[in-house]
Design goal:
heterodimer, A: 268 residues, Ribosomal Protein S5, domain 2, four-stranded antiparallel β-sheet, 12 strands, B: 243 residues, alpha+beta, five-stranded mixed β-sheet, 5 helices, 34% helix
């Protein structure tokens, strides 16, 4: 990062740490509170599916594009899902135009792994000509305002977008794939939700703001499906976590995921 | 069968979306939509959806590009991968670079750049959905975002296109009319100063038709000018009265 005004002065760092130690946060939240989540579905008519998610001041848009393409070599009969994240410069004074940075690649991959491991869509039903042509689902994550916890907001947006996605129907004639005017629901039935915790001092807090992310010691993202199974874990940050802390974090995540999931289903 | 339909449409001179020849698409402008930007605006022009953020005036990076006597204006135009059909690569294309450049040329004359020597003002336009005329819509939103950022300006820059479709001069071409039509003339204009800051054309037009297109564009610009003012008043109007 090349902070221009995003740098948190040392005083602020101390203040955040002190507040968290005494069980409070700078924005008045409890340690395990999420900011308000607002989900808007189908905001882009030209995309096959889309959603915009507000998580406090964090704002993320996801657009889904579907085309017919070649399968991965190791799964010739399964559909393909590709996640990509763009940190566009309007989202933060610290984002600059240019090739994707580490953070955006990490974000896309964590969301991607969540969707893939939970089998959000039954990929085995997405072959058009098995071994040759399959549905290719592009999930493009667009960060519009960065106010912390981009992973959770993006995972919610990706899921909400997929749930409203209509896939184009292809027909096969003489070994050739032809696009028809018809559309069918994609049927995203599984619901993986990402829950991110950060460790500041000895406390674990949920849904970190941008300032809290800057002063955090460690971060753990846990993706949980609707049966309470963990699908993805991603740890980052410069310090380690104890086994107890990880156990506690996973319990909190499983519990919170239910709450977040209801925000998404409430919007369908 | 399809031929019959086509000729019927020609007879009635109907536009795809049923608009009059000199009618704009519905426009919605909102200012101050991005908390992290110094100024911002969101515009919907028909099905175009564009969000613009302005940062600065701030330090120029890299430093050797700074100008000793004025600020540098940087514009970036970028399209979301899901903004068009089929999906588009997020890497900037040559078209994006060119539109960023023409946005700069359109906006520069309106800004008092000489008040901020050695600094940089950045305008970032992100196209969330494209439906023909994105450069015009981006310029309209960028102006509002610049004002929102508190950057002193000589006038608002308004932009609108006219063109020729099915042999007739029409205002504010939609995506289909832009692609299938004979010509497209995007214009940017400063209504108070009466100066045109952007003029492009592609297609084939007679001199007479071109003049018609420009005049029609300016007519459209004057209408959008009022909408820009409304958007800004909505955000700042009440504050002003209190002062």
């Amino acid at each position: 990062m090349s902070p221009r005004h995003g740098i948190v002065p040392r005083l602020k760092r101390k203040k955040i740490q002190e507040a968290v130690t005494s069980g409070k946060r700078m924005d008045g939240r409890e340690l395990e509170d999420y900011r308000e989540i607002v989900v808007k579905s189908n905001v882009i008519e030209k995309a096959e599916g889309s959603a915009e998610v507000f998580l406090g001041d964090t704002r993320v848009m996801v657009g889904i594009k579907i085309k017919c393409g070649a399968p991965f070599e190791d799964t010739p009969n399964a559909g393909v899902i590709i996640c990509n994240a763009e940190f566009v410069p309007i989202a933060s004074p610290n984002f600059e135009p240019g090739p994707p940075r580490e953070e955006s690649i990490e974000l896309a991959r964590v969301v991607d792994r969540g969707l893939r491991s939970a089998e959000v869509v039954d990929f085995s039903k997405l072959a058009i000509i098995p071994g040759k042509y399959v549905y290719v689902i592009n999930v493009d994550i667009y960060i519009l305002n960065h106010a912390g916890n981009l992973i959770d907001a993006s995972a919610i947006a990706a899921l909400a977008a997929l749930r409203g996605t209509m896939k184009p129907v292809y027909k096969v004639k003489d070994g050739e794939v032809l696009l028809t005017d018809k559309k069918k629901p994609l049927k995203a039935e599984k619901m993986p939700v990402a829950v991110t915790l950060v460790k500041i001092g000895d406390s674990l807090i949920l849904d970190p703001s941008a300032d809290e992310e800057e002063v955090m010691d460690a971060r753990l993202t846990v993706t949980v499906d609707e049966d309470g199974n963990v699908c993805t874990i991603q740890k980052s940050g410069t310090y380690g976590l104890t086994i107890e802390e990880i156990g506690k974090a996973i319990n909190i995540a499983v519990e919170k995921a239910t709450e977040i999931r209801s925000k998404i289903t409430g919007n369908d | 069968m399809s031929k019959k339909k086509k000729s019927k449409r020609k007879k009635k001179w109907e536009r795809i979306d049923g608009r009059e020849a000199n009618e704009l698409r519905p426009i919605k402008i909102e200012s101050g939509v991005l908390p992290n930007a110094d100024g911002s605006a969101y515009i919907e022009m028909g099905r175009n959806k564009i969000i613009v953020g302005v940062f600065g005036p701030g330090e120029m990076h890299p430093k050797h590009l700074a100008k000793p006597h004025k600020a540098v204006l940087r514009c970036r135009y970028h399209m979301a991968p899901f903004s068009v059909d089929p999906r588009r690569s997020p890497a900037p294309s040559r078209r994006d670079t060119e539109i960023g450049m023409v946005m700069r040329y359109s906006l520069e004359p309106a800004i008092f750049l000489e008040r901020y020597p050695r600094s940089c003002i950045e305008v970032y336009a992100e196209v969330l959905q494209a439906d023909g005329g994105t450069r015009c819509a981006s310029i309209n939103a960028a102006t509002v975002a610049l004002v929102d950022a508190g950057i002193p300006m000589r006038d608002l820059v308004v932009s609108c296109a006219a063109g020729k479709y099915n042999g007739r001069v029409i205002l504010d071409l939609g995506d289909y009319e832009d692609k299938e039509g004979e010509a497209d003339v995007p214009v940017a204009y400063m209504p108070k100063l009466g100066e045109v800051t952007l003029l492009q054309m592609d297609g084939i037009l007679s001199a007479e038709e071109l003049e018609k297109c420009i005049n029609l564009s300016i007519e459209g610009c004057n209408q959008i000018y009022e909408m820009q003012r409304e958007a800004l008043k909505k955000k700042y109007g009440i504050e002003k009265e209190e002062n």
